[in-house]
Amino acid sequence: MTAKIIDGNAVSAALREGLAARVAKLKAEGGPTPGLAVVLVGSDPASQVYVKSKQKRAGEVGMNSFEHLFPETASEAELLAKVDELNADPKVHGILVQLPLPKQIDADKVLERIDPAKDVDGFHPVNVGRLATGGPALVSCTPLGCLILLKRELGDLAGKRAVVVGRSNIVGKPMAQLLLRESATVVIAHSKTRDLPAECRQADILVAAVGRPEMIKGDWIKPGATVIDVGINRVPGAEPGKTKLVGDVAFAEAVEVAGAITPVPGGVGPMTIAVLLRNTLEACCRQHGLPFEEIL
Ligand code: NDP
Predict the structure, then answer these.
(1) Which of the four, 33, 37, 117, 124, has the lowest number of CB atoms within 10 Å?
(2) What is the pLDDT of residues 208-229, one digit of tens each?
(3) Per the residue annotation, which of 54, 82, 160, 173 is the catalytic one?
(4) Nearest atom within ligand 1 for CA of residue 193
């Protein structure tokens, strides 16, 4: 069997198209223009690339984006003051503080200062708590992107056995909560899990969020399972001096066993920014007392 390849580029493009139509309708009806503020501290090249592409994508769907740049030497007090200002700004519906932050700044303190209603990354403890207790929450972008891919692929997830490998606060834990919310039977595996291959072989849905290149082998996968590979790992390429990206799943083996699988790159990765914009629209609608309906 050769697995169906789940095309994250195509799904994220459809999500952005749907968002653009929603934003245009909102504006045409005299409603607000959703606004995303991005705060970047320092000059880390990877962070700069992420921030630029977030802004570009926001513009493409008709949203406003506001960039706030700070030098590497910025103080925690300066950053907290900026968050306070953005919390109070009615043109800003979503606030994203690009991580990592320099060591003199306590990232948790900054993230907890963001108004939970504007926390489009879904990292604030209020949103994390609401996700766990079933309330209306802004949900971390990467796991929500994975859930969108899974629901489009499988429809109803109720009763399916899901194994999430990884328990980080930004991917593994919220992913498990989302799957539980869909009434899947969820196992969370991590570095202390005994016999990880045996746990994975039970999974109808296998989500890998580990950060270890190609750790999950083809013979760990139940035939026909749906595999979501969140991992992004840069490894040496075929030619000397060149590198390539691989996931946490040994794709060439897994594709022969799974029913459907996300590739790396081109699977989960492109979903993250599209979901950030989806969250910005949701935050905008809720702040203005407008209904928000799911796009995909
Ligand atoms: P973290 O390093 O925060 O978490 C990794 C998790 O994997 C931990 O829970 C750890 O367990 C577990 N783990 C590590 N080694 C093993 C092992 N040998 N067996 C079982 N479990 C293990 O990573 P993130 O969650 O932040 O990211 C995971 C991957 O996803 C990375 O490759 C990252 O680049 C990628 N990523 C991709 C995104 C996207 O947009 N596509 C966004 C965010 C992340 P323990 O808790 O016991 O230490």
Answers:
(1) 33
(2) 999 999 999 999 999 999 999 9
(3) 54
(4) 20
% of the chain surpassing 70 pLDDT: 100
Superfamily of domain 141-270: NAD(P)-binding Rossmann-like Domain (3.40.50.720)
Structural domain boundaries of the chain? Answer: 30-124, 141-270
Q: Which two tokens stand for residue 230?
A: 């969140």
Angstrom distance (rounded) from CA 24 to CA 108: 35
Q: Tell me the mean pLDDT in the region 250-268.
A: 98
**Helix, strand, coil % in the chain, rounded to nearest 5:** 40, 15, 40
Beta bridge partners of 36: 65, 94
Ligand 1 centre distance from Cα of residue 166 (Å): 5
Taking the domain 30-124, which CATH number applies? 3.40.50.10860
pLDDT tens digits along 109-157: 999 999 999 999 999 999 999 999 999 999 999 999 999 999 999 999 9
Q: Out of 82, 98, 118, 160, pick the active-site residue.
A: 98
